[in-house]
Records
---
Amino acid sequence: MKLKQISEYIWEIPKQGDMNVPAIVYSSPSLLESMRKDLTLEQTKNMACLPGIQRAAYAMPDAHQGYGFPIGGVAAFDMENGVISPGGVGYDINCGVRLLRTEFFEKDIKKHKKALLDEMFARVPKGVGVGGSIHLSSKEIKQVCTKGAQWAVEKGFGREEDLERTEEGGCLKPASPENLSPRAMSRGSGQLGSLGSGNHFLEIQKVVTIYDRETSEAFGIHSEGQILVMIHCGSRGLGHQVASDYIRLMENEIGTRGLPDRQLINAPLKSKLGRKYFESMNTAVNFAFANRQMIAHLVREAFQTITGTSEGMEQVYDVCHNVAKFENHKINGREAKLCVHRKGATRSFGPGHSEIPEAYRDVGQPVFIPGSMGTSSYVLAGTQKSEQLSFSSTAHGAGRVMSRRQALRSFRGEEIKRELETKGVDLRAKGWRCVAEEASQVYKDVDEVVKISDSLGIGKLVVKADPIAVIKG
Amino acid sequence: MNVKYKFLNHTADAKFQAYGNSVEEAFRNAAEATANLMWSTKKVKPRIKRKVSITGKDREQLLVKFLEEILFLLDTDDFLLCSVKELSIKKEKADYALEAWFLGDRISDESEIFGSVKAVTYSEMIIEGNDHYLIQVVVDV
């Protein structure tokens, strides 16, 4: 595909054919090379064909092939002619990242590390099937889906302050659980408070570099060697079923004719079905917030049991990276309400934005970009510049470059574990195969991804943290 | 023996092709392929069975709903598929209807689960053939 280079890290697919707007790809020559190997660019172009899309279709630096939208795709639609697309959000609705800081240092944790890892592994359910932390009645699941993280805090899983430090306060409105299918409810009823499988993880990290001390201190991250805990998971079977249900409802009601890709099925924002999807998606968003809230609580309990205290284990923030939301953005100099889809992209509101918790309002919202297993993760801060460049969005992770199949042929789980141990990283996983599939070599270079984000100014580098202990689902 | 299914490379997700001398056989093999992304169907004993009855407005939707049934039974009933029996597909007016039995077992401490499938997608989906059927599916993992 022909791309026009605009500047060092900005490439354009000019408006052509059925595209309503151009497509903009934020990448470096080396990352672009891997995007060219699959359908990433085609899928970015397809986003630009959807009705009511504003300004441009965007691909973040970590973008890779998805279905419908690429993973790492951002698109905003106007309320009058625009659409909402389940394929633009993804199956794992509100997959996201929560970061806890601690007042422990690496030296304090060293002697407890193995015991902590075992304790967390025992407490936090993972893997597939029913096996969540609690089993919910259908009445309870509706409450979870309406209240989100608030429900968990009310039940004693966590603290009131956690909610202030969660995107949207841990609850998206309006959420209408009465629109959930019985299938979605039953898939969710046994899975709350569980990590799941695949690329989801729970990680103890140590701060290795602070790039911007003023901002990091505002986030409560003050020293090299400080211990952090990162939680990456989503809405489990409930969210997957909501996506599948609404793809089907839209197919049956609207039809698939004329779509460049059936996974791009969508409904007008003004339609009843579009509204219903939005409100059902919100229930899954809330389920995921509650899920991460409960896991954070289990992590604190594990620290309490092993070290004798969980004091100072404050939440830095919780971000969602698979979601569609109504936000105000400037279009042709005028403020407009848009439906912003972020599929594998993180919101990146800059300093001064009213949606950011007061404690962070001077520095921008925290953004978390987890690396792959055994590699660094990053804390960034949202910027005002991202407003114009990407509807206030940046990357969400490293992005795969190698298929799981190829990974299985290339790596062995046991060897990866040993290799990580020599680097000082302990690993606990449910099986070896998942470890091989998630080997760090199958991902793009996360360092390059955050470098581009920082250079472009869509997310500013604040902290780099390295893993010391990893739990894989 | 003929190849029932084959896994193909896909950057972020999992892709497979399933084959059959009839569309029913290809559907059965697609179910086996999906299950074998998560556990080995050979290691699951056919201890319990579950009836599957679904409809779809076209064959693609029918296939998505059929394979999704494996994920649904796993998430809600800890059910591991071993094999699919008595699968029939009928065209009824505008819709397709599928009936089948899933044979399998419940997850136990001995079950070895090595992967998860989040959802069945339409991405790169193929259902084609007359005498020999080919099905291609990408699942979100």
Note: The mean pLDDT of chain A is 94.
---
Amino acid sequence: MMQENYLWDGSGTPDPEIQRLETLLADFRGSETALVLPAELPAAPSKFRGVFVNPLSLPRLAVAAAILLVFGVTLFFTMQPKTVPETGPAWEVANIQGEPQIGTKAIAADQAPSKLHVGQMISTNGDSRASLSQADLGEIRIEPNSRVRLLQTDPNRKRIQLDVGTIHAAIWAPPGTFVVDTPSAVAIDLGCAYTLQVAPDGSGSIRTTLGWVGFHLNGRDSFIPAGAMCSTRRELGPGVPYFEEATPAFREGIAKFDSNPQDSSARSAALAMMLSEARAQDALSLWHLLSRTTGAERAQVYARFAALVPPPRGVTRAGILNLDQSMLDLWWNSLGLGDISVWRFWEQSASPQPSANSQQLPQKKQSLLKQQP
Amino acid sequence: MAALSEIRSSHAGPAAVNACNDTGGPDDSLVRAAQSGDRAAFGLLYARYSRMVHGILLARVPFSDVDDLVQDVFLQALPRLASLREVSRFPGWLASIARNRATDFHRRAKPNDEFDEESVAAQSELVAPSTRHSSHSSAEAHAVLDAIRSLPDAYREPLVLRLVEGMTGPEIAARTGLTHGSVRVNLHRGMLQLREILGRNASPPAGGAL
């Protein structure tokens, strides 16, 4: 007998027949590919907003969404408070499917949206999903088998912790406002639309669907525009980003390159694979490889990159091989993937600090989060 | 030689929607903002409604064509958005564009192109390989999707949105502009018909798939 409620909104006793169909049909689900709009929109005045905008340097329809992830040897902690006061500012939590929980309290499908207060955790099992939202932030969809804790919320800083699982975020808050902690990273300044995943071992990946995203660790930057992905590894940080449409061999080369930082022969073989497979569309990845290779390998990357996408005026081979930042930036901007001056502005800014009046976790827990290189 | 135009045309770059720094809010305000040219707002509408559009198209056109048509729908909607007088009707309006796009697709396609054996076999090859499914499951998945597509419009669309796209009934109602009652009835009736079809198609030696 079909379980009516389960078919309607996933609540109640799961219907095994319907569950089986859902599993069977899952591969047909939409993959949230990036929307590519024409450069010129009908009657669309530039509405770019944000404190980091330099109107002199940005093209009229330039896009900038900065995500800054600082990777390091963070002490990942799990906090299971016995009681968390349900007072103060809160985010709205809605049940999308099944019975997500706030602490040990289930959120039923037919009840009004619940509130998530600072310190509280929302978790989903294999059959449940939820959404988090706040008026001046955006929306975060929490997928099955995920755990998210609210760490801080105030007008200038909103922070969550993704222990494990997957979130899809569409953020309209100004960059520098929203922060996500993961087992291998602290995220600051999140914007636009993306999917962030964290595996149980602390590794992760991000996939951008709108705008672009930046990762940072000890001077290593990775920029991920819409349609691209980037993996992260605990203690290694962000890998080489790539467009999803890159060839399987190219992506395989990136995976091997990133996962063998100490094995020079494996890295060389992986690099050779990438360079042989690279197309002009892979300029994103080749640009990043310049700063992740040295000596003869960097020269090889430059040669392949320049053959596919000649450097613009003002960029020289010698400058690139010396990793001249201004030349690297010029070449990046010529790719049309986003104006890097936005990123440089944020790089030069001090990391935003929690405000004194913010609603946030006790000092002891905050200090654990600050232990990063 | 350089293929910068190819890079720029094939990826977001400066043409990407600026989805940052908007105040956001309920869909009505997003639609109004998008109508006045706010690319960020339109980007958020895309994020919210792309699943619905994908499901509506998947209920009607070959799987291999759905992603491209999703893009087409939104590119068609954008210049026409200003003509939408009642912003609260945006969900239903967008759903109509998606259905019309599917109709256009078939109008331009060859006769009997969609569900003949050859195209179904081609679709099977284009389904992204999954570590969760064997080839048998993939064939079964296609058979189930075909069965859903054979249902009347009123039933197949909510079923695809529910079973494939993972949207709940309330979400389907909110995104398509239909009432909860309509969606609930159509889900229920559609599921009954689907069970009947799948029960008829089940092979006797397997004891019935469902």
Note: Chain A touches chain B through 84 residues (CB under 8 Å).
